[in-house]
Amino acid sequence: MDFPAAANALGTLGAVCWSVQLIPQIVVNYRRHYTTGLQPSMMMLWAWAGVPLGVYNIVEEFNVALRIQPQILTFLSLVTWIQCYYCQRKWTVVRSLLVVVPIAVAMASISGGTDPVLLAAGVLRHYWDISMHRTVRGISFIFVGIDAAGDLFSLLSVFFQPRLDILGMVIYGPELVLWLGVFACGGYYNLLPWIREKWFADQDQARHSRSPDLDIVSSTHAGSASGHIVLHDMPSSTSVFSTASRGSAGLRPRAVASLRRSSDEQRETSVHTTP
């Protein structure tokens, strides 16, 4: 299909997505000061993929947005790659620059046709990490979403070029499918366990927040339903009228007086019956 306006618009959207997709990941790495789970090999493969991709887009006379997109991809990939060594392996800034600058210069002087393989291989490296650890770790889902959107817009842009370019479809299509798979893994290994944990936590909180009176009432009903008499250790109803104990500490005053009269009568009886 020959729709230059649609091709330029979609290509621009794809270029914008691919220009900023790694920025959220770079910011996350900077704030956390660690890159555990983020694969530096993926970032290096992406950096190399941008070199032939840029040459290809220029030779095929794609729109301007698609021509500058690979260069931005290479630059951001190199920044993310060196972050892995700076944060995780504690490289100094000087050492990091001494390593990354010559690589960038070499990339500027090399071209080829292996960009689809390198892009797909970079994402596949994360599949290996997911299979080993049963979780999607280290990678920002914002970055994944933006990059997948860039693949989608760029792929649609190819369809609106004057002629359908098969190689362009091969460049963007496989990576889009692989990113959708990463999203699916994140939903299964990360999102579902988080939802289950939150649901059980809410259930426990609701169970422990019930009123103690409700527990007493429920236990009373349970006792009545079973036909048993439930005895409670409660003070006597006459305790309001009690006075200080006399004689025996545990007896009421009337009981003490009655015992005294009984003992006196017994003594009198024994005196009268004695010969």
From TrEMBL:
<feature type="region of interest" description="Disordered">
    <location>
        <begin position="251"/>
        <end position="275"/>
    </location>
</feature>
<feature type="transmembrane region" description="Helical">
    <location>
        <begin position="42"/>
        <end position="59"/>
    </location>
</feature>
<dbReference type="GO" id="GO:0016020">
    <property type="term" value="C:membrane"/>
</dbReference>
<keyword id="KW-1133">Transmembrane helix</keyword>
<feature type="transmembrane region" description="Helical">
    <location>
        <begin position="136"/>
        <end position="160"/>
    </location>
</feature>
<feature type="compositionally biased region" description="Basic and acidic residues">
    <location>
        <begin position="261"/>
        <end position="275"/>
    </location>
</feature>
<feature type="transmembrane region" description="Helical">
    <location>
        <begin position="6"/>
        <end position="30"/>
    </location>
</feature>
<dbReference type="InterPro" id="IPR051415">
    <property type="entry name" value="LAAT-1"/>
</dbReference>
<feature type="transmembrane region" description="Helical">
    <location>
        <begin position="166"/>
        <end position="189"/>
    </location>
</feature>
<protein>
    <submittedName>
        <fullName>PQ loop repeat protein</fullName>
    </submittedName>
</protein>
<dbReference type="InterPro" id="IPR006603">
    <property type="entry name" value="PQ-loop_rpt"/>
</dbReference>
<keyword id="KW-0812">Transmembrane</keyword>
<keyword id="KW-0472">Membrane</keyword>
<dbReference type="Pfam" id="PF04193">
    <property type="entry name" value="PQ-loop"/>
</dbReference>
